[in-house]
């Protein structure tokens, strides 16, 4: 009888031990991290984004088969594979939904202004006073007349710098790319007694092409009055993605006349 009781007790204890053995829970999804090469991408570029899921046990795995999308189609289009194409300036959140979780990354689309650019602008308004008026600045820089221009620019994320030229005259310039994609830069050309302060307002909604406007303020040591010119870009296209040196296209003028300065801005 004691033997039977002992065996029964042993069986019960064994059953209880088995019943209380802990089981390893199945890991569940916690967070999703979306990855791209940069948080700033140029208009016209495409990149396939990836995503990684972190599980409740700390392990990670690649997200496959998730549903990709974006919240601003005017900035980026998103394919089912996670391939993102930048089509405009601004911010967009790229996301993926997977197993009840969403991961996202905010990126910025912006124009690529780097490279060498060549084109022209046309004058829409010219006003002069004092000796600039009597010397005929606006008689030479007439409305609708077309003048050449070039840029040699480098770009680091949303910061642009380099040189521009008006004809044979050139100067350094720099400026930030605004959220809407506009680039405003300024530079000062100095030649002899003359100074031309130039402000550019540029936009590039199509890769390789710049539109926009510029304004010029002319003044000179010993001259009365000034000259003010407003112009629009007629055409300005990227000729190379590389940068080159923009230099003076002829001998420096120690004491140029106004007409010589105007002549330096013309086609050569």
Task: Write the SSE topology.
Blueprint: H1 2-19, E1 29-35, E2 40-42, E3 46-48, E4 50-55, E5 60-62, E6 67-70, E7 76-78, E8 83-86, E9 90-98, E10 101-110, E11 115-128, H2 130-134, H3 137-140, E12 146-156, E13 159-166, E14 169-176, E15 183-191, E16 194-206, E17 209-220, E18 227-240, H4 258-264
Parallel strand pairs: 2-10
Antiparallel strand pairs: 1-4, 3-8, 4-5, 6-9, 7-8, 9-10, 11-12, 11-18, 12-13, 13-14, 15-16, 16-17, 17-18
Q: Which secondary-structure class do the elements indicate?
A: mainly beta
> How many domains would you count in the coordinates?
2
Total count of helical runs of at least 4 residues: 4
**Helical percentage:** 10-25%
Going across the major beta sheet, what is the strand order? 14-13-12-11-18-17-16-15
H-E string: HEEEEEEEEEEEHHEEEEEEEH
Shape: rod-shaped
Please name the CATH topology of the largest domain.
Lipocalin
Residue fraction in strands: over 45%
Q: Report the end-to-end length measured between terminal Cα atoms.
A: 121 Å
If you average the pLDDT, what whole number results?
90
Tell me how many strands there are.
18
CATH class of the largest domain: Mainly Beta
CATH architecture term of the largest domain: Beta Barrel
Cα gyration radius (Å): 33 Å
Major sheet attributes: 8 strands, antiparallel
Question: Low-confidence segments, ≥5 residues, pLDDT <50?
Answer: 9-18
């Amino acid at each position: 009888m004691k033997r039977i009781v002992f065996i029964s007790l042993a069986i019960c204890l064994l059953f209880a031990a088995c019943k209380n053995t802990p089981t390893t829970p199945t890991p569940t999804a916690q967070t999703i991290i979306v990855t791209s090469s940069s948080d700033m991408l140029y208009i016209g570029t495409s990149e396939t984004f990836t995503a990684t899921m972190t599980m409740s046990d700390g392990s990670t795995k690649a997200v496959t088969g998730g549903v990709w999308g974006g919240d601003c189609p005017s900035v980026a289009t998103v394919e089912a594979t996670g391939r993102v194409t930048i089509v405009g300036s601004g911010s967009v959140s790229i996301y993926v939904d997977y197993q009840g979780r969403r991961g996202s990354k905010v990126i910025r689309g912006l124009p690529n202004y780097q490279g060498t650019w060549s084109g022209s602008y046309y004058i829409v308004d010219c006003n002069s006073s004092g000796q600039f008026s009597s010397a005929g600045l606006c008689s030479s820089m007439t409305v609708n007349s077309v003048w050449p221009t070039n840029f040699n620019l480098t770009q680091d994320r949303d910061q642009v710098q380099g040189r521009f030229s008006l004809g044979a005259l050139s100067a350094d310039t720099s400026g930030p790319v605004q959220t809407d994609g506009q680039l405003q830069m300024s530079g000062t050309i100095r030649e002899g007694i003359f100074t031309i302060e130039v402000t550019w307002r540029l936009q590039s909604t199509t890769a390789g092409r710049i539109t926009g406007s510029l304004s010029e303020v002319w003044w000179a040591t010993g001259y009365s009055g000034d000259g003010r010119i407003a112009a629009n870009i007629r055409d300005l296209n990227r000729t190379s993605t590389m940068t080159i040196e923009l230099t003076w296209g002829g001998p420096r003028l120690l004491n140029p006349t106004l007409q010589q300065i105007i002549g330096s801005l013309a086609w050569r």
